[in-house]
Design brief:
- The protein is of the alpha+beta class.
- The protein has two helices and four strands, in the order αββαββ.
- It is about 30% helix and about 40% strand.
- Strands 1-2-4-3 form a four-stranded antiparallel β-sheet, covered by helices on one side.
- The two termini are about 15 Å apart.
């Protein structure tokens, strides 16, 4: 599974202005914090569709998108597909 996570992060870096991994923090025990698998990407709107298609093939799905029309950027959140 680790290979898939690294691959998804690398795909995001190809298309995005900024990429962040989102972590689940445990306030009582910071040592127990972990990466949830969720990735936040800031990218030009024109690259959203190709990014989404590549991440779908890598086993990720888009959970949310926010568009900033003035800057022609969007922020998209992706997370691993859950096994149904």
């Amino acid at each position: 599974m680790q290979v898939s996570l690294s691959r998804a992060h690398a795909i995001c870096q190809e298309f995005s202005v900024k990429v962040a991994r989102l972590y689940q923090y445990n306030i009582q025990d910071p040592e127990a914090s972990y990466w949830s698998g969720e990735i936040k990407c800031i990218l030009e709107v024109q690259y959203f569709q190709p990014l989404m298609e590549r991440l779908l093939r890598a086993g990720y799905c888009c959970t949310q998108v926010q568009k900033d029309s003035r800057k022609r950027l969007c922020t998209a959140w992706f997370e691993p597909k859950s096994p149904d």
